[in-house]
Amino acid sequence: INLSSDFLITPDFYWDRENLEELYDKTCQFLSITRRVKVMNEKLQHCMELTDLMRNHLNEKRALRLEWMIVILITIEVGDSTVDQTLHQTICHRDTVGRW
């Protein structure tokens, strides 16, 4: 967002009316439009930076949560495989001991 794009340029309407153009220019000077636009642009820039900062923080937080979910799922899979292998070895060991 940039307020200084067309706002600071004298509108075409005043070009044909010199007395009104002069009035317009004096009004802009009296109201310090240029300075106000600059201040507003700075405030908007700060707001955009804050918004970007918050967006990045939320994205990092979400990515961290997804990483932890993946770690937990891998841990569950490894635990399940370990239990499955242990049970399989125990059953096979009982079968081989029972045959002797």
From TrEMBL:
It holds the Pfam family DUF155. Coiled coil: none annotated. InterPro entries: DUF155, RMD1/Sad1-interacting. GO terms for biological process: positive regulation of mitochondrial translation. GO terms for cellular component: mitochondrion. Residues 1-41 form the DUF155 domain. Belongs to the RMD1/sif2 family. This is Required for meiotic nuclear division 1 homolog. It comes from Nannospalax galili (Northern Israeli blind subterranean mole rat). The gene is Rmnd1.
